[in-house]
Amino acid sequence: MTLQKTGHNFTKIAFIPLQTNLFNIVLVSFFLTLGCNNLYAQEIQKKSTVIPAKTPVEKPLIVPINDSKTILEPKKVTDTIVKKDTIKATKDFLDGKVKYKADKYARIDQKKKTITLYDKAELYYQDVELKSGIIVLDYDKNEVYAGRLKDSTGKYTQYPSFKQGANEVQPDSIRFNFKSKKALIWNSRSDQGDFRIKAAITKKENDSVYFLKGARFTTSKNIENPEYYFQTNKVKFIPGKKVITGLTNMVIADVPTPIALPFAYFPMSKETSVSGIILPSYNDSNTRGFSLQNGGYYFALSDNYDLTALGDYYTNGSYGLRLESSYAKIYRYRGNVNFRYENLITSERGYPDYAKQKIYNLQWSHSRDSKANPNSSFSASVNLGSSKYFQQSINQANVGSNLNNTLSSSVSYSKTFTTVPQVRMSLSATHSQNTQTEVINMTLPTLQLSVDRIYPFVGKDGVKKGFFKNINLQYNLNGKNSITTTDSLFFKPQMFRDAKIGMQHSIPLSTNFKLFKYFSATTSVNYEEVWYAKTISRSYDVDQSAVVDKDVNGFDAYRTYNFSSSLGTTVYGTFNFGDNKRIKSIRHVMRPSVSYSYTPSFEKYYDTYASDASGTINKQYTRFENGIYGSPGLTNSNIVGFDLSNTFEAKVTDSDSTKVEPKKVMLLNNLNFSTSYNADADGETTLAWAPVRISGGTQLFKDKMNVNFGTTLDPYAIDNSGNRINTFNINNGGSLFRMTSANMTLNYSISSKEKDKNKDKKNDQTERNGGREDDLFGRNTVQNNSSVSQFDDDDDGEDKISEFFRSKLPWDMTFAYSLTYSNSNRQREITGNSIMISANADLTPKWKAGISTGYDFVQKGVTYTQLRFERDLLSWRMDFNWTPFGTNANWGFFIGIKSGVLSDIKWDKRSSSTR
Question: pTM for the full model?
Answer without folding.
Answer: 0.66
